Amino acid sequence: MIRLLLWLFGGALLGGIVHLATVLMLPSLATQDAYARLAPVAPVNTVAPVPSASPEAALMPFMDPAFAMAVCRYDLSEGPLKFSVPVSPAYTAVSFYTRTNVAYYAINDRAAGRRAIELDLMTTEQRNELPGDEEITAADRLIVESPTTTGLIVIKALVPELGLLQAARAALAVARCQPQ
Questions:
Q1: Residue 138 above 60 pLDDT?
Q2: Cα–Cα distance for residue pair 103/95, rounded to 1 Å
Q3: What's this model's pTM, rounded to 2 decimal places?
């Protein structure tokens, strides 16, 4: 009887290890991640609107129909990016993701405290090449360090009522994500 219990325990333990390893490896092996799905819609280092979600098709998972969205697929291999987006009438949020869909920074219009969210996006190496006077650098601009050279910037503008949809889309249309 004890031998049977040991075999069952060993089988359950091995099954758990295989399951855990599979779950942890799948995101890195997936070919149709958000970055790849957005390639036809969004050129690199350019802000592009994301089509509204419908029950039949959504470009990205878990899209909220109460938000107008735009994305920027960035590549920092050529140098830092200058990012700016005016705030929409209701609420604007910007999220930064690595190429493997790991969120590493987010900011909204309330935190920015201005009429526009403006920042510089760069890698740690590019940040280290900035001039040594950190007080001037910190006072002049917000600098976000990306852990990878490629990734996504997702911009969301709240549309609390249908009449504000065009205003939210207009704010996203003016957004810029371009090399310095």
A1: no
A2: 7
A3: 0.80
